[in-house]
Design brief:
Pfam family, one: DUF1499
Order of helices and strands: HHEEHEEEEH
Largest sheet: 6 strands, antiparallel
Protein name: DUF1499 domain-containing protein
InterPro entries: DUF1499
Strand content: 25-35%
Radius of gyration: 18 Å
Number of domains: 1
CATH class: Alpha Beta
Length: 135
């Protein structure tokens, strides 16, 4: 019985370390506040890219929508800079997803991706497409 209790305690400790790392790992703007060359709408296993005709105020409107989303904060950038990166965390585990948006004339370029794992199960697509619908 003591052996099972020890194994259980070890499992709980490992789980606590993993959850702590996921929630507390720093998000370096030098790494995540970056935009690839987005040229068309693309769905990937770990995120999405979107090209949205919005007019010149698209980034400002997206910032309002994004920051009204639960568990979403600004990591870096500003409307004045023309590019912003947001972190949205999952409700239960706190997994971070990063969404970078850049105003390019009358077009808004959006790049959303996850930090951990190889598939986001469509979470970034659903969130970004929901934000676009609210624009």
């Amino acid at each position: 019985m003591a052996r099972y209790l020890m194994v259980f305690i070890i499992i709980i400790a490992v789980l606590a370390i993993v959850v702590g790392y996921v929630r507390l790992a720093p998000s370096d703007p030098a790494v995540w506040h970056d935009m690839p060359d987005v040229t068309r709408d693309t769905d990937m296993a770990n995120g999405v890219e979107r090209v949205v005709p919005t007019g010149p105020e698209g980034l400002a409107r997206l910032a309002e929508v994004a920051l009204a989303t639960p568990r979403t904060v600004l990591l870096a950038g500003s409307v004045g800079e023309g590019m912003m990166t947001f972190i949205t965390r999952s409700k239960f585990w706190g997994f971070p997803d990063y969404t970078t948006a850049k105003q390019d004339g009358d077009t808004l370029l959006i790049y959303a991706r996850q930090r951990f794992g190889s598939s986001d199960l469509g979470v970034n697509k659903a969130r970004v497409d929901g934000w676009i619908a609210r624009l």
